[in-house]
Amino acid sequence: MINGKKILLCVTGGIAVYKAAALTSKLTQAGAVVKVILSESAAKFVSPLTFQALSKNEVYTDTFDEKNPKVIAHIDLADWADLILVAPATANTIAKIANGLADNMITTTLLAATAPVWIAPAMNVHMYDHPAVKKNIETLYNYGYRFIEPGEGYLACGYVGKGRLEEPEKIVSLAETFFQNRTGVLAGKTVIVTAGPTREKIDPVRFISNHSTGKMGYAIAEEAFKAGARVILVSGPVSIDAPPGVELVKVESAKEMHKEVFSHFEDSDAVIKTAAVADYRPKIQYEYKVKKQDGDALIELERTKDILFELGQKKTKQILVGFAAETDHIDEYAKRKLEKKNADMIVANNVSQEGAGFGTETNIVTIYKKDGFSESLPLMSKQKVAEKIINEVSLLIKDMSEYEDRECNC
Ligand code: PMT
Question: Is-above-0.90 flag for pTM?
Fold first, then answer.
């Protein structure tokens, strides 16, 4: 998939520049056409000649070193690329791009680029944790840049923690997935996936929640992305990283999840509601920490909005998939949910079974569809279950498109 694809690698100055040389080599070996821009500081770590030899292309370092009088190099490179990787990306370059600066060959090219840009940060763990860096990353994320999260481990500065440039093999595999996506069965489709628990606040230090870890939903988001979809992952608080390439929208409460899902719903083709959304929230949410008193305490609860139900009322072309976390009467409750919530598919898991449901790496599910079809799957990894769900969703989307085409012709 990567064969013949044009990748512009922007290398900024940090010790991880040596890994960018390996990345250049691996991308080139995989068949990509790689052009490299080195920042002035990157060139202090590894010479441009290394990148030239590995990419078999001229290397760019200076905005004013125009190699071809017929074009303006930074515009030409920006237009040329199918994908731009910034690896390693220093805190300094991240800050510059986030603020729209264009003071060197890399930042000027990035400002002129319309191709997707993937940023792979590498820096000291405390730098990566600094609020300014976090804010810049968030700004860039909202501009549509995507991030390849740094790995954890020994850092050149002597610290151990998050900040290592992702391994070149992994970056190549992500690039391969990216190009594969463009021809995948869900190419051009937008899929919303919800995942994780919600937290319903009692007071500033207490909340009501559940055991969802997000593993099932994140696996689905990853498979949907691999199948070529634009994926919007609306997630409650979890401690796992979002799969690269998906658009992560973080929420806390059922109310916030409701808002975010509906703000993207109209333009979506499918919604997969894996999240374990709270059915109730405290009627009063205190702004101060409630003091304990003698005797028992009562928390009065009120219903949250049933997001899946409301989506079922409002859907037009969207395929709607709900989950059912049950401990008994699985078949009966799942079928009831399918009908009551006007869903196209329900994935039921018996969460009392070992290896199924919350927190596990595996799941045991039965899929129910509107046309009466049902299929019970054996114990499988959540990733495999996700793959199966995405296959089913692709078929449903295909059926819906064919139906819409027929309606148009009438
Ligand atoms: O995150 P993991 O640790 O990997 O665990 C995965 C899981 C067990 C959370 C997942 O497989 C699962 O079963 N998710 C649905 C959990 C749940 O809330 O089930 P439910 O039967 O209570 O809800 C039915 C459906 O309605 C769900 O799609 C839910 O997202 C939706 N719902 C529920 C309540 C609400 N207020 N709004 C909703 O949209």
Answer: no
